[in-house]
Amino acid sequence: AQSVSQHNHHVILSEAASLELGCNYSYGGTVNLFWYVQYPGQHLQLLLKYFSGDPLVKGIKGFEAEFIKSKFSFNLRKPSVQWSDTAEYFCAVTPMNRDDKIIFGKGTRLHILP
Amino acid sequence: SAVISQKPSRDICQRGTSLTIQCQVDSQVTMMFWYRQQPGQSLTLIATANQGSEATYESGFVIDKFPISRPNLTFSTLTVSNMSPEDSSIYLCSVLLPNFGEQYFGPGTRLTVT
């Protein structure tokens, strides 16, 4: 069955540190890829997405992600985190033949120390 | 984008009772979904709410336990029936905007069953 794995369940960083959150998926066909973020007390919102084209995609708030097809990975990065980045981050995949149903990873809780 | 509202935002219910959650979208959408997010877990798709026909349930979820209505393209309800403490969770409504290929999520309904 298709699945999405996020390697880190809980990450703690200091402000200005660099961030990389890992995401791997298991599906051999064409996929759309997403990162969603859920700030404390708020609902899920889209951070960035990849459908096709340049595998390095830029999202809101300085985040970017790189799609590496050979590694089935879509890691999220930010060069310098801020306290306001404290949130839970979900990687998600839509396999193209699954009627647009999104499969989510278990999420990574990011805590930034001021 | 789409603006989604859910009612109630939270509720505390007794074992054996039922709760109906409402989801309202500010535009007509074809694809509407219901998810469950249990503490410390990822989002799990319960069902796809189809307008004018029965919902399509994912493995492990059945209509008797989670009846869904979808009377039009802007509204849906999810009922959690005969509740037990294991049903304590956040229930999320989501819509897919095909032109943008991304899903938007409601703020969620936090359910606690005692």
Report on the structure:
The complex is a heterodimer of chains A (114) and B (114). With 114 residues, chain A is mostly beta strands. Chain A contains no helices and twelve strands. In chain A, strands 2, 5, 6, 10, 11 and 12 form a six-stranded mixed sheet that branches. Helices cover 0% and strands 53% of the residues of chain B. Chain B contains no helices and eleven strands. In chain B, the strands form two sheets. In chain B, strands 2, 4, 5, 6, 9, 10 and 11 form a seven-stranded mixed sheet that branches. Chain B has a four-stranded antiparallel sheet with strand order 1-3-8-7, with no helix packed on it. The model of chain B has no long low-confidence stretch (mean pLDDT 92). Classes of the chains: A mainly beta (114), B mainly beta (114). At the A-B interface, strand 5 and strand 6 of A face strand 5 and strand 10 of B.
In short:
With 114 residues, chain A is mainly beta. Chain A contains no helices and twelve strands.
Q: Cα-atom Rg of chain A, whole angstroms? A: 14 Å
Q: What proportion strand of chain A? A: over 45%
Tell me which protein chains meet in the greatest interface and how many residues each side has. Answer: A-B, 20 and 18 residues
Number of strands of chain B: 11
Low-confidence spans of chain B: none
Oligomer: heterodimer
Question: Approximately how much beta-strand content do the residues of chain B carry?
Answer: over 45%
Give the topology.
The complex is a heterodimer of chains A (114) and B (114).
Chain A (H helix, E strand, L loop, with lengths): L2 E4 L3 E5 L4 E3 L1 E4 L4 E8 L6 E6 L5 E3 L5 E5 L4 E6 L8 E9 L7 E2 L3 E6 L1
Chain B lengths: L3 E4 L2 E4 L5 E7 L5 E7 L5 E7 L6 E2 L10 E5 L2 E6 L8 E9 L4 E4 L3 E5 L1
Parallel strand pairs in B: 2-11
Antiparallel strand pairs in B: 1-3, 3-8, 4-5, 4-9, 5-6, 7-8, 9-10, 9-11
Overview features:
heterodimer; A: 114 residues; mainly beta; 6-stranded mixed β-sheet; 4-stranded antiparallel β-sheet; 54% strand; globular; B: 114 residues; 0% helix
